[in-house]
Each structure stands twice: as structure tokens, then as C-alpha cells.
Write a structure and sequence with these properties.
Elements lengths: L35 E5 L6 E6 L2 E4 H6 L5 H10 L6 H5 L2 H15 L13 E3 L4 E3 L7 E5 L2 H8 L6 H5 L2 E5 L4 E2 L2 E4 L2 E6 L2 E6 L3 E2 L2 E7 L18 E8 L2 E2 H7 L13 E3 L4 E2 L7 E2 L18 H6 L1 E2 L2 E7 L1 H5 L5 E7 L7 H8 L11 E3 L14 H4 L7 E2 L5 E2 L7 E8 L7 E11 L3
Parallel strand pairs: 6-22, 8-16, 9-26
Antiparallel strand pairs: 1-2, 1-5, 2-3, 3-4, 6-7, 10-11, 12-15, 13-14, 13-22, 14-16, 14-17, 18-19, 20-21, 20-25, 23-24, 25-26
Helix pairs in contact: 2-4
Bound molecules: manganese (II) ion.
Length: 433
């Protein structure tokens, strides 16, 4: 890949959809977005869908009705194979792009093809969402210099952080969509003895995940300039974290039970193509750091490898729910603050020959930025639990309490383009059992 990733008619801000809710200002899913997911109706089997406004396009029904041709038809068939989008992801970007173009033509308010959409549209409110892919492996990175510095209470960045996007292998089997999360029991030090009790430092990490599309063969690293072509799309990721056990268990092998109990993601995958208008320069505020080694360096990733994506975390406590109070914002940040790009994460991950597979999930790490409102987890906001803070209703927090409900959102905005959203990833903390 050389030169900027091209825009096309699917990004045209003048387009409107015949699904009227898609044209409302602030809608997450206008015709310029068209994210992929898996849904079911009335306890039926999960099937592939595309979000448009407040509706879901039943992709298989549309394919069977003969709506697509060529590579787009191939892509729609692949999306319907199995209980996730892995076969579509494995095809690489061109078939998914062809499908996006034909979908946009059918959903356009000026559609000429004459396809009867009413037969293939499902109200979002009547569908149940499922994980969008069979996720074989889940890797979580640490790529925000601001998160790294606040967590270590140091203004310096260690050599490993500035040399490569560092990461740990996390747990794929416990990835879930929005729902309830039970407070886990963990071992922590109690004087000179360990004890086993419900965690007292239950935290969130506001992140964005990338789903791998086409994979690489074992032993064949992905060159940095080809890394973007292995991206299928993006979702919101909450890497729930238990800080008390994380610090106790983490030496020398890194996070384990502090992270593996649950990760919550948003259900819709916003494609690499849909995010192209929102690409921006990498490493703002870190320009004085040395350039990475050649296998992680590219002019293209430096110029346009970051995503200008607004992120927020909202908290509603049990008391706020009882008193009908709206959630309060804990974090407002942007993905562009990351030190490393997704292309660099992919190139680094495969640099030893490790094979990435279609449907693998790679998460950005806590997406904190320079300002206090950009702190993207409670360990940062409460200075690792040493500074409790007040909520507007008089409650205080250092970490999450039972009954707390946390919602993560993401929205991309740029002058001259129609804003697109990611939906939400929500989790409510239940008491330990
Ligand atoms: Mn994380």
C-alpha cells in the first residue's frame, strides 16, 4: 500500500438512505457507515446483518433474493457461512468493499435497481445481537504514552514502550457483548499472607479493537506497508481490569486473572473502508520520540495511520438509576492520541512470524490522552485508588461498585464528511457470588 487509502462513492456525504432514521443527525449508522454484525430473531440461528439507521439488513435474505452480483455476491455468501463473519473476513478487503458499494446503491434514497428492501429489513429493537466473529485469539496492546506514564507515575517512557507496541495475550473465550459482569474473587496480599476475596479495584479500560481480515502464513511477517490490508474493521473494546490482583500477579509474566474473566465489545464492526475519511497523523504530542526501527516505520502510517475517533465512557450507578438520573461522563478522549498505529501493532505482532487469523481481535490498549478528561480508566482518574472523586449526586468512587453500569461509545466526526458511530458496549457490575 502506497499513498493514502482512496475514498469512493460510498463515502459521498450527499448520499441519503431510503431508511429515514439513517438520515437523522447524530445517527450512528448513516448510509456512509454500513457496519457488519451477527443477529438473530425469535431464538433462531445467528445470521449476518448490516446496520442502517434503526434497522438491520438481513444479508442472507438479500443475497438469496438476488440483490448482489460478482465479488459482492461472493462476499454476501461468505458472510452467511458459519456462526460468525470469519469467512467474509478471510476474503480480504476487495469483496467486502464490493458488497459495501452494492449495499449502498440498494439503500440509497435514489436507488434505481428497484429491489424491494422491505422484505430484508429487520427492526434493530426486535433482534438479538451475537459476537460478530469466532474470535480465535485476542491480543491487548499498551499504546498510549499518557496511560503508560500515569500508571507508572513517571514522566518518562521506558525503552520498550518507545521501541515497539507492547502487548499481552488475553482470553478469547470470555469476550462478550453488553451484559452483566460478576465481581470476581481474586488473590491479593494481606500483610505477609495472601487472601482470596472479592476484588476491591474493579476497573474499565476504554479501547478500540481491530478485527483481522486476511491472515498471514506462519513464518511470514506482514510488512508494515501491507498491514492496513489485513484490517477488516473496528469495534469498541472494554478490557475490564482488576488492579489489586493485576499488580500482585503481574511479576514477571504480566496480566492473567486480572483481565481474563470478561472483555466486553460492541456488536457492529465498522469497516476499515468506512473509517477512511477519519484517518489522521500518528503520535501527536510525542514528536520528540525517536523513530521506530524500519520494520515498524512507514511514511504512510506516520501521515495517516491514526484514527480521529471520539471515545467516551459513561457511568450510571444503582442510585442514579433508582432516581432516574442520566449517566455521567467519566472519560472523553480520542483514539488519535495513541503512540502506535494499528498498522504498527499488526506488523509488530507478526514480526516474529506469528500467524494472525481472520477474526482475531487486537485491542489498542487504554486510549488515554494528555488532558485530565482523557484519562480512560479509573486507575488513572483516581491515581491508582489514592484519590477518590465525587459524582454529581454526592456519591464517591475510586473503582467500580456493585450495580454500576458503564457504557462506552465511539463516534467519528470530520468537517466535510457524515459522522459515523460505533453503537455502544455496556456492562453492569453484579455482586460477587
Ligand atoms: Mn487493556
Amino acid at each position: 500500500m502506497n499513498g493514502p487509502l482512496p475514498l469512493n462513492e460510498t463515502h459521498d456525504p450527499a448520499r441519503r438512505s431510503s431508511v429515514s432514521a439513517a438520515n437523522a443527525p447524530g445517527c450512528d449508522f448513516p448510509i456512509q457507515n454500513l457496519p457488519f454484525g451477527m443477529f438473530s430473531l425469535d431464538g433462531g440461528a445467528p445470521r449476518p446483518g448490516v446496520a442502517i439507521g434503526d434497522m438491520i439488513v438481513d444479508l442472507t435474505a438479500m443475497q438469496q433474493a438476488g440483490a448482489f452480483s460478482g465479488e459482492a455476491d461472493l462476499a454476501a455468501r461468505a458472510a452467511g457461512e458459519g456462526r460468525g463473519l470469519n469467512a467474509l473476513m478471510a476474503l480480504g478487503q476487495a469483496p467486502a468493499s464490493a458488497l459495501r458499494a452494492q449495499l449502498a446503491d440498494h439503500l440509497d434514497a435514489e436507488a434505481r435497481a428497484g429491489f424491494d428492501l422491505q422484505k430484508v429489513l429487520v427492526p434493530m429493537g426486535s433482534a438479538r445481537m451475537h459476537l460478530p466473529a469466532r474470535i480465535g485469539d485476542f491480543t491487548d496492546f499498551l499504546t498510549s504514552s499518557y496511560h503508560s506514564m500515569r500508571m507508572r507515575k513517571s514522566d518518562d517512557l521506558p525503552l520498550n514502550f518507545t521501541s515497539m507496541p507492547i502487548a499481552y495475550h488475553s482470553r478469547a473465550s470470555s469476550i462478550r457483548l453488553s451484559g452483566e459482569v460478576i465481581r470476581p474473587h481474586v488473590q491479593t496480599p494481606d500483610g505477609d499472607k495472601p487472601r482470596f476475596a472479592p476484588t476491591t479495584q474493579f476497573d474499565y479500560e476504554l479501547e478500540v479493537g481491530v478485527f483481522i481480515g486476511r491472515g498471514n502464513e506462519l513464518g511470514h511477517p506482514i510488512p508494515i506497508d501491507e498491514a492496513e490490508s489485513h484490517v477488516f474493521g473496528y469495534c469498541i473494546t472494554n478490557d475490564w481490569s482488576l488492579r489489586d490482583v493485576q499488580y500482585f500477579e503481574g511479576q514477571p509474566l504480566g496480566p492473567f486473572l486480572s483481565k481474563s474473566f470478561t472483555t466486553t465489545i460492541s456488536p457492529w464492526i465498522v469497516t476499515e473502508e468506512a473509517m477512511r475519511p477519519f484517518r489522521t497523523a500518528a503520535r501527536p504530542g510525542n514528536e520528540d520520540q525517536p523513530s521506530p526501527l524500519p520494520h515498524l516505520a512507514s511514511d504512510e502510517t506516520a501521515r495517516t495511520g491514526a484514527l480521529d475517533l471520539d471515545l467516551e465512557a459513561l457511568l450510571q450507578t444503582a442510585k442514579m438509576r433508582t432516581e432516574n438520573q442520566d449517566p455521567v461522563t467519566l472519560t472523553r478522549t480520542n483514539l488519535k492520541h495513541l503512540f502506535w498505529t494499528f498498522a504498527q501493532m499488526i506488523a509488530h505482532h507478526s514480526s516474529n512470524g506469528c500467524n494472525l487469523m481472520p477474526g482475531d481481535l487486537l485491542a489498542s490498549g487504554t486510549a488515554s490522552g494528555p488532558d485530565p478528561e482523557n484519562r480512560a480508566c479509573l486507575a488513572e482518574i483516581s491515581a491508582r485508588g489514592t484519590e477518590p472523586f465525587d459524582l454529581p449526586n454526592g456519591e464517591t468512587r475510586t473503582f467500580l461498585e456493585d450495580g454500576d453500569e458503564l457504557t462506552l461509545r465511539a463516534f467519528a466526526r470530520r468537517e466535510g464528511h457524515v459522522p459515523i458511530g460505533f453503537g455502544a458496549a455496556t456492562g453492569r457490575v453484579l455482586p460477587a457470588t
